[in-house]
């Protein structure tokens, strides 16, 4: 029996929009666009591109940027209920985000504990914002991911775990490659189709719950735990 392990992206997945892109559109000079395009085309690493984008922003904007993100960000429908469902069934769940601590933590407060969240850190002590990378690539990844989702998955995964990755963007592609099932939307969905990865499309977290409930490995694990069907 394989125990499910659920890994979920934040920006554009838990939230309805990409908060880093929203910040750049609102506050950054136009140089950020070329960096973004370089990341999407994979000509620039995620770590380099995102780090350089934030370096375009003065630290003095911290309060304005924080207030802007917390005001405009929206949690995707069904997410709170999805987390409650996973907790009730005893399914391990972690948020693994290329986003920044100053908006990821407050947006998830009261929904999921900090010790189940992996994200980058933003420093505001210098003239411009500096990104710190507490979760770098391990020896098995050389992609300069920034927050390396495959490395975190390898750290969390048990030998026989069935890994489910939920995501939407270029930052989730490498994680999708080392997962058993990817629940995907937008850019990541197209990548999964092109790479031939096992996947299912979702619009909101009601869809994600349904997909999990219909996944054989999840049903088997829930049925066997304590000798009763936990999906009922």
Q: Can you characterise this structure?
A:
- This protein is an alpha/beta fold and 232 residues long.
- The chain has a single domain, classed as HAD superfamily/HAD-like (Rossmann fold, 3-Layer(aba) Sandwich).
- Helix content is 43%, strand content 16%.
- It has eleven helices and seven strands.
- The protein has helices at 19-27, 31-40, 46-55, 62-72, 79-89, 101-108, 149-156, 173-177, 186-195, 205-213, 216-224; strands at 4-8, 93-100, 117-123, 130-132, 162-167, 181-184, 199-201.
- The protein has a seven-stranded mixed sheet, with helices on both faces.
- Helix 9 (186-195) links the parallel strand 6 and strand 7.
- Helix 2 runs antiparallel to helix 3 (46-55) and helix 5 (79-89) packs parallel to helix 10 (205-213).
- The relative contact order is 0.18.
- The model has no long low-confidence stretch (mean pLDDT 94).
- Dephosphorylates 2-hydroxy-3-keto-5-methylthiopentenyl-1-phosphate (HK-MTPenyl-1-P) yielding 1,2-dihydroxy-3-keto-5-methylthiopentene (DHK-MTPene).
- It holds the Pfam family HAD.
Features:
alpha/beta, Rossmann fold, globular
**C-alpha geometry:** globular
How do the helices and strands follow one another from N- to C-terminus? EHHHHHEHEEHEHEHEHH
Provide mean pLDDT, rounded: 94
**How many discrete structural domains?**
1
According to CATH, what is the class? Answer: Alpha Beta
CATH superfamily: HAD superfamily/HAD-like
Helix content: 40-55%
Biggest sheet statistics = 7 strands, mixed
CATH fold label:
Rossmann fold
Task: Provide a count of the helices.
Answer: 11
Strand order of the largest sheet: 4-3-2-1-5-6-7
The portion of residues forming beta strands comes to 15-25%
Question: What is the SS-derived class?
Answer: alpha/beta
Number of strands: 7
Pathway: Amino-acid biosynthesis; L-methionine biosynthesis via salvage pathway; L-methionine from S-methyl-5-thio-alpha-D-ribose 1-phosphate: step 4/6; Amino-acid biosynthesis; L-serine biosynthesis; L-serine from 3-phospho-D-glycerate: step 3/3
InterPro entries: HAD-like_SerB (IPR050582), HAD-like_sf (IPR036412), HAD-SF_hydro_IB_MtnX (IPR017718), HAD_hydro_PyrdxlP_Pase-like (IPR006384), HAD_sf (IPR023214)
Function: Dephosphorylates 2-hydroxy-3-keto-5-methylthiopentenyl-1-phosphate (HK-MTPenyl-1-P) yielding 1,2-dihydroxy-3-keto-5-methylthiopentene (DHK-MTPene).
Catalytic activity: O-phospho-L-serine + H2O = L-serine + phosphate; 2-hydroxy-5-methylsulfanyl-3-oxopent-1-enyl phosphate + H2O = 1,2-dihydroxy-5-(methylsulfanyl)pent-1-en-3-one + phosphate; O-phospho-D-serine + H2O = D-serine + phosphate
């Amino acid at each position: 029996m394989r125990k499910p392990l659920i890994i979920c992206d934040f920006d554009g997945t838990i939230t309805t929009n990409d908060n880093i892109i929203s910040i750049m559109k609102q506050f950054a000079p136009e140089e950020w666009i070329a960096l973004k395009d370089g990341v999407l085309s994979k000509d620039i690493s995620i770590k380099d591109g995102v780090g350089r984008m934030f370096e375009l922003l003065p630290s003095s904007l911290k309060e304005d940027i924080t207030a802007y993100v917390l005001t405009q960000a929206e949690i995707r429908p069904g997410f709170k209920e999805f987390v409650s469902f996973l907790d009730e069934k005893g399914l391990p769940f972690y948020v693994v985000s290329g986003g920044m601590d100053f908006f990821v933590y407050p947006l998830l407060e009261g929904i999921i504990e900090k010790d189940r969240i992996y994200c980058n850190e933003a420093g505001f002590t210098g003239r411009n914002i500096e990104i710190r990378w507490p979760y770098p690539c391990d020896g098995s990844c050389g992609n300069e991911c920034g927050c390396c989702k495959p490395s975190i998955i390898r750290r969390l995964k048990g030998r026989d775990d069935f890994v489910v990755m939920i995501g939407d963007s270029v930052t989730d592609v490498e994680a999708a490659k080392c997962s058993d099932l990817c629940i995907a939307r937008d850019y990541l969905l197209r990548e999964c189709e092109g790479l031939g990865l096992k996947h299912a499309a979702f619009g909101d977290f009601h869809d994600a719950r349904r997909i999990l409930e219909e996944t054989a490995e999840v049903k088997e694990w829930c049925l066997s735990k304590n000798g009763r069907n936990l999906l009922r």
